Amino acid sequence: MDRNDSLLHDWRERALALEREVATVVIGQAPVIRLLNTAVFARGHVLLQGDVGVGKTTLLRAFARVLGGAYSRIEGTIDLMPNDLVYHTYISDEGRPAVDPGPLIEHGEDLAIFFFNEINRARPQVHSLLLRVMAERSLTAFNHEYRFPYLQVFADRNRVEKEETFELPGAARDRFLMEIEIAPDDTAEIHRRLTFDARFHDTDALIAGMPPAMLEHRSLPAVAAMIQTEVRTGAAVETFVDHLRRATHDPRAYGIKLDGVDMDDLVATGASPRGMSMLVRAAKVSAWLDGATDLTPEHLRAVFHEVVAHRVFFTPIYELQRGRIGAEFTSAVLRAVPVP
After folding, report:
1. pLDDT score, position 1
2. Pair 178, 184: CB distance under 8 Å
3. Are the beta carbons of 45 and 306 closer than 8 angstroms?
4. Residues in the chain with pLDDT < 50?
5. What is the pLDDT of residue 161?
């Protein structure tokens, strides 16, 4: 085993230990925890969505706790403005106006996790600022350029309430590596524990009981780059990825049909080259977490919906039905494209 193999093996053990720790706090969510862990080592931003009270915020707080590095959080509200992310003003004890750094810049380049709670309550102007930070990991303020080399944005979206909310534009959604649907396992035992075990009733105490900083966040970009180099892809897998891309653009050519959908009028734009590169990036991390050194179609299939679905744009009449059609469409693509 050479030095890179040894290092990646050690980091894989840490990553799996992190998953096990989070699973003690967020129960019944093993697939979601694996997806979020995949995004961490793919160095991508994540949007969680689901019903109220299913554990979105708890899951993101748990990951922020164990990942280490500086952590900032902001709540999405209708009156939130872009400057609220950068600075806040107040009257000091001396009765004079004062300005302090906001949550995006208060930790400087050490910021590792920026958690945006209920992001769809914020105005489009706020989304625009966040878009630049997510894409470039930088921000100009106070005549100074702040860089965030370790930054990951975790956000959650309340999909139930529609009043005083602003849906994210396509460009902003594309900056999220994954959009992950969260819902607890629908088993009586899981619901019984969540309902009657007092340990899960105090979220602050639950999170505080987790070991902090299980990973060295400053090393994550280098480890992530090593994973992309060490996990190999073959010609057959590359052809499979190309067929997946083509199927998102021209589903009829692959015999894809959805009930009640005019397939000629469904897709406005299929997955972009960037979207497919993000798919491969996430799939390589999935392979690494499984202990594999070669990328397989199954690793691509494991992350396909979460990485690709929000990067396929439907025509307006069907975009309104994305919640139903999105999952049906990606499942149909995976069924239609033959596995090499």
Report:
1. 59
2. no
3. no
4. none
5. 66
CB 174 within 8 A of CB 134: no
**CA-based R_g, the chain, Å:** 21
Q: What are phi and psi of 98, to 5 degrees?
A: -140, 155
Question: Tokens 């100074």 label which residue?
Answer: 144
- Give phi and psi for 116, each to the nearest 5: -105, 105
Which domains are assigned to the chain?
3-218 (3.40.50.300), 231-336 (1.10.8.80)
The pLDDT value recorded for residue 311 is: 95
**pLDDT computed for residue 254 by the predictor:** 97
In three-state secondary structure terms, 51 is coil
In angstroms, the Cα distances linking 129 to 29, 74, 262, 313 are 32, 14, 37, 23
Q: What is the pLDDT of residue 184?
A: 66
SS3 assignment, position 73: strand
Instruction: Please name every residue paired with 154 in a beta bridge, in sequence order, or none if there are none.
Output: 46, 115
Q: Indicate whether this model's pTM tops 0.70.
A: yes
What confidence score (pLDDT) does residue 76 get? 92
